[in-house]
Structures are given as structure tokens and as C-alpha cells.
Amino acid sequence: MGDGKVRAADAPLLEAARREPDSRVPGDDAVIVIHREPSGAGELAWMPDDRNYCLAVIRDARATTTCKPLPSSWARIGIRLVTEGRPYPDQSGGADTRTLFFAVVDGGQGPYRYSGSGTPHPGLGPVRDATAVFASGRTLSLLTYERPTAATSAGEYICSTDNAICFPPLDVHVG
Predict the structure, then answer these.
(1) CB 34 within 8 Å of CB 142
(2) Where is the composition biased (Basic and acidic residues) (predicted)?
(3) Given CB 3.0 to 4.6 Å as the disulfide criterion, which of 7, 17, 95, 174 pairs with 63?
(4) CA distance 168 to 158
(5) For the segment 50-76, what is each residue's pLDDT rounded down to a tens digit?
(6) Given this model, what pLDDT does residue 117 score?
(7) Degrees to nearest 5, angle at CA 68 with 18 and 20
(8) pLDDT digits (tens, 9 = 90+) for 80-127
(9) What's the gap between Cα 142 and its chain centre?
(10) What three-state secondary structure class fits 107?
(11) For residues 39 and 59, what is the distance between their CA atoms, to the nearest angstrom?
């Protein structure tokens, strides 16, 4: 839906993801672009069905793809998955490495943002989200966000626009 739809400018991201052996990237109409950056960086996701997901992380025009089932139990209402990915070089040119997080949230109450008692840790990257709607009517929001590899949680949460769903961004839950 919306900004998550593949555009012509996303061709380099799709090409990078499709070059990875065994990536099985579907047609453009079934891929969700969560984040796009200039210079060959971004995140793509697709869900073969509403129980399994694939995430392609593209950095420096190279992709790393992970495909797994969603967990059968959930840590919080609405939160289906929060994973911590491998560290990547800082795309803004800094010397720091960053860790990418991926979350799957039931419902489409985006956009999601940091919320809570204080200002988010200064190194946390923005929350990026896209919405997937399945033929059954089920809606899932797919989120990515980054943090410096050495950062720890400072009490902030990521929340839906209506604050109905909130979760600590650094609490990994894979079921």
C-alpha cells in the first residue's frame, strides 16, 4: 500500500535482492519497500502468506535475505515479531556500525514513531514502516529501524499513531 509499493527507482534494490542465490524474490507487485535510500541501500519485504515473511536488507548494492515463519506466540498485543539483524556500516558516512531491527505488527495503524517519557536515544534511526494487506483482509505493518551497535534502551517505545500498540524497540521477540 502507499509508499510501500515498488517504484521504477527501486529497480537497483530489487536487482540486488534477486542476485542473491535462493532469494526467491516474487514479482514487484508482491514486494513491499519499507525503506529506500540513495546509493544502493534499503529494505524490502514480502510475505508468501500471512504466516511467513522474508526481509532483504540491501547495503552497498548487496543484499542479505532472511525468510522465516512468524512466531506462534507473541510477547505483547499486536507484536508478532521483533528481530535484531546483523551490524551494517553507518550509511551516513560515519565510522559507527549500526544494527537493523525488523518488526511485524498486526494492524495498520501507521505511521509508527518513537514515543515515551523522554527523547529517544540520539543514535536511534527513524522508524520506517509499510503496510501489507492480504486477500483475507488481514493487515500487517512491517517496520525497520536502526541503532548504533553499542546503544542500549533508554526507556523509549515505538507506538502506532493511535498509541494502541507500543513496544520497546530493543526487545527482540522471535517466538
Answers:
(1) yes
(2) 16-25
(3) 17
(4) 6
(5) 778 899 999 888 888 988 888 877 666
(6) 56
(7) 20
(8) 777 877 777 665 555 567 888 888 888 767 888 888 655 566 677 789
(9) 5
(10) coil
(11) 8
The amino acid present at 144, given as its one-letter code, is T
Per DSSP, the three-state class of 70 is coil
Is the Cβ–Cβ distance between 44 and 20 less than 8 Å? no
- Please enumerate in sequence order all residues whose Cβ is within 8 A of that of 26, keeping only pairs 6 or more positions apart, or say none: 46, 48
Nearest Cα neighbor of 1 from 35, 29, 37 is: 29
Cell numbers for 174:
522471535
The candidate with the shortest Cα–Cα distance to 56, out of 48, 46, 47, 64, is: 64
Distance CA 60, CA 19 (A): 13
31 vs 149, higher pLDDT: 31
Question: Hey, CA dihedral for 150, 156, 161, 164, is it positive or negative?
Answer: positive
Q: Which strand (E) or helix (H) includes residue 166?
A: strand 166-167
Task: Give the pLDDT score at 19.
Answer: 92
Question: What pLDDT is recorded for position 90?
Answer: 66
Its pTM stands at 0.81
Average pLDDT, integer, range 142-153: 77
pLDDT at 17: 93
